[in-house]
Description:
alpha/beta; Rossmann fold; 5 helices; 19% strand
Amino acid sequence: MILIAEDTTDSRELYAEYFEARGFSVVTARDGEGAVQAALEHVPEVIAMDLAMPQIDGITAIKRIKADAGLQHTRVIVLTGYHFALEKSALEAGADLFLRKPCLPERLETHVNALRQGQGRDRGTSTS
């Protein structure tokens, strides 16, 4: 299962529809608080998390998610339009990968699959 946490409706729906068409179970959240609640309820394998969201920001949401013992192994991909200046904060919060928007769904799927298969354990940025 993948959780798409994105406040922009078009982006959230695009990614959700793409992943559902590819056979994934998908849960969505439109803000940081919703992302935390959805993660606690559904325990996704991977979360694609925007940083700039209402309620609580993505970095705070990641910290709260990773603080839960049942979610410590959930992989988090930051998917944001923010500059790489926030990369260190995101990775320190518990993100596994930092991707910049725009990001095609196919590219995101490649990274999701790699994380699901236990690849990419070294946290960092992807420019691919």
